[in-house]
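Technical note accompanying the year-one report. For the benefit of new consortium partners, we illustrate the data format agreed upon in the data management plan: each record pairs a sequence with a structure-token string. No post-processing was applied to the example shown here.
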Amino acid sequence: MEAKTSYKNRYHYLILFTICFSLVNCSSSDNDSPSQDLIEISHNGPAAGNPDGDSAIPTEAGLEDVSQPDRIIGDGTPESCTAEAFIDAVAKGGKIVFDCGTEPITIKLKEPAKIFNDASKEIVIDGGGLVTLSGEGKTRILYMNTCDQDQHWTTSHCQNQDHPKLSLQNLTFINGNSKSETEYDGGGAIWIRGGRLKMVNCRFFNNVCADLGPDVGGGAVRVFSQYENKPVYVTNCTFGGAEGYGNTGSNGGAISSIGVSWTITNSLFSHNKAIGNGGNPAQSDTPGGGSGGAIYNDGNSMSLNISGSKIEYNEVVQHGSAIFFVTNDHSGDIKINNSVIQNNIGGSWYPVYPAISMHSDTQIEVNNSIIE
């Protein structure tokens, strides 16, 4: 079932929020800061979503209702919206909103906010179009892992459980950096395993993960083990969007996953980079990586469904300047509708379409789209 018309009628005001998103200066003067250059983003930064995207949005992929929140961060002033308040609210779960005043605000984190699996079945974090979460070039921003004992195990099958169900909406994630993470690597802004993930009206700018490695990735987002192989929903989101705003990692400049399906609607991926070298498995005398300029999907029995989206000006060293999609058992499929994939840079191994690396026998269906 699809709800294109009702979605737009109910949430038309969010278009205005997206257009007038404004972020404060997030530069850092710390002498020991990482080499990542922190970006300065004005209110004219890239908006959320593909401006030309008009595909119908699956009902489950739309916004969650936060009219009756469980938790409100802030008391109406910018000063009250601290990183500590955000981390505490995320740990408690439920529907979370912000009351930081009427102007855009950036909340700067020194450590990631972590979701506890037993806090609540559903977690919604809604920035109202005004909140930016920054890792300050030093830390990942958000972490959820149903198989991490420190986050409390809730089932005997942590790799396939229906909770927590996490929805992120009307938020911007900038300057996340997971390079120092070793056990749960990748995912510069967000790292997810288990439960469900949905992102609506979100923007991801200048997030980074490890530069090298055959199977590490997700400059912005890294995902594993979604419940019953149901898809991650990405609706009206922007990853990069302009030069200087892109996300970077060894593989999957924007997003990376293993054994995970995705439904991506009316979204924009541009200026993201996969900068590893040597592929997966790594070629002799190379560190590995460098595939999937925008999207890196690996594993078995997964699907990639892209509608109303634009993927352009992404860059790779190895394979898949736009998309790397490899199922080890040669199952899975790709569907591309009403989308544009063009002007992506580098890479090789394009058996059917330019910019898309996949097995030649992978099922791919393309309708009303440009791929060049």
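Partners are asked to follow this layout when depositing records. Confidence is low (pLDDT under 50) at residues 1-35.
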